[in-house]
Amino acid sequence: MIEPKLEVPAELRDLAEKTIDQAEKAFGMFFDAATKSMTSVPGAGTEVSKQALAFTEQNMKSAFEHARKLVHATDLQEAMRIQSDFLRSQFTSAGDHMRQMTGSFMQPGKGKS
Question: Structure pTM?
Answer without folding.
Answer: 0.77
